[in-house]
Amino acid sequence: MKKLILYISLTTGAILFLYPFIWMVSASLAPESEIGNLIFLPSQISFGSYFQMFDKIPIGKAFVNSMIVACAVTFGVLVFGSMVGYALSRLEFKGRNLIFYIVIFTMTLPFQITLIPQYILIVKFGWVDSYAALIVPYLMNALAIIMFRQYFKTIPQDLIDAARIDGCGELRIIFGILWPNSIPALVTVAMITFMASWNEVLWPLIVIRDENLMTMPQLVTLFAVGGRAESQLGVKLAAATMLALPIIIAYTFFQKYFIQSMASSGIKE
Amino acid sequence: MKKKITPYLLVSPYIIHFLVFVAFPVGFSIYLTFNDWNIISPMEFIGLGNYKRLFNDPIFWKSLSNTLIFLLIHIPLQIIVALFLAEMLNQKIKFRGFFRAAFFLPVIVSGVVVTILWQQLYGFDTGLLNRLLVKLGLIKIGWLTDPSWAMPSIAVMATWKNVGLYTVLFLVGLQTVPPQYYEAADLEGATHFQKFFRITLPMINPTIFMVVVLSTIGGFSLFIEPYVMTGGGPLNSTISAVLYIYKQGFFYYHMGYATTLGLFFALLILSVVMIQKKFVEKDK
Fold first, then answer.
1. Which terminus of chain B, N or C, has fewer Cβ atoms within 10 Å?
2. What is the pLDDT at residue A269?
3. Measuring CA to CA, which residue among B109, B220, B125 is closest to residue B165?
4. Contacts of residue B102 in chain A, CB cutoff 8 Å?
5. Are A208 and A215 in contact (CB under 8 A)?
6. What's A117's domain CATH number?
7. Which residues of chain A make contact with B126, given a CB cutoff of 8 A?
């Protein structure tokens, strides 16, 4: 009896969290006239909302932009993060503690304070409406550095010494020896970084005005707010579905890693 | 010689990035707070003008009280729901992985999507919630159009979006409680509630602190939800800290004033987090 109540509560909870997404997908596939009363599945599947959306906004282009930005940012964070993490955990040098404190300082610094000056920098660099504006400020990440530093500390010194005797340079040690032995750390950092970049919307809203350079969340936001969806709900939901789908698909395959990564970092979005 | 400079070469990209995108902006923002500037025309030194304006700006105070309302609803709700879900997941159950994944789904989906969905749910005439209320013979509520409902509505939505993450954090916390504690309590004849309040709650105190800190930061970072749903209205009842910075900076181009707001909110976040930390440490 107690078990039954438990399962009923759990299932109710699951429905509460899943249903809105199911409704979104099926409403985006329903004829516009049916959406208002839609509960579960439409009487017939129609791609009308999607055709209209493709007609109105360059969503394909935005997908490519989001991909380019998120991949470049993730790559940069992995490469630079592991370089700094390695230096901080495995090399002795003057100023090491200072740099570590700088990393901690950067991590605790609220972004509200740097938002406006960073925008001014982008303007002065002439980077408004460019990929550089979306990528360069995000190439370094304090949390990633800390995570690499922690993980590299657990790798046996013998491995590094052996590589040194074989004449490996520091870069070879990082990318040839440490990386293959740090897959969990790499996966965690890559996932958090990619997702944060994919879902970021405030910064693109500030530095990108050219529709052809917009990322997906930005384009969908402006579409939903700007009235170009002409209060056609189906078109709005089609855009939302397009934005959510890549992450949801990745999530269904790798949900365990997603949850572990996010929980281990304790950050959101 | 080569060995000595290698570490510096490895950290140099980070240092350059730090100087350009963190150190300079922090310094420059403090300088900017004493100036009036719209980026195009020359900067004008106005002394403490921005600070005076801040303290006399009703919308600034409004954004602060809105954030407070948000946090007062969001934090307790978040902790209660997350603890409840985590407790259920911590029982011996089948399909734990599925349930956990379901609760977690809104966490990974873009806030834009979540906001668009809840906008439909909260709709005045066609929204699911109001249709339900009408069916039950009650009157419709202006979830997003009534100034006293709008911010609480956004707080509930934000809870729905984030609670999965905190459920998982609590689950990790619950699993660190040694089972012997519960066994000993069972021998003493403790009730379920006693066990929860005497053993579980004190043991997961660090997790609760983390949730409170992250939610506080989240409250002061609230942007896309009011931006999409209400634009800060009705009657500025949902204007959040970041939305107000955004409006002053990128709508009116008051760079000096927007920076002053940013600096003020940043200091506020840091001090709130520090106070919370002190509070929790004293509690132990």
1. N
2. 33
3. B109
4. 13-14, 17-18
5. yes
6. 1.10.3720.10
7. 36
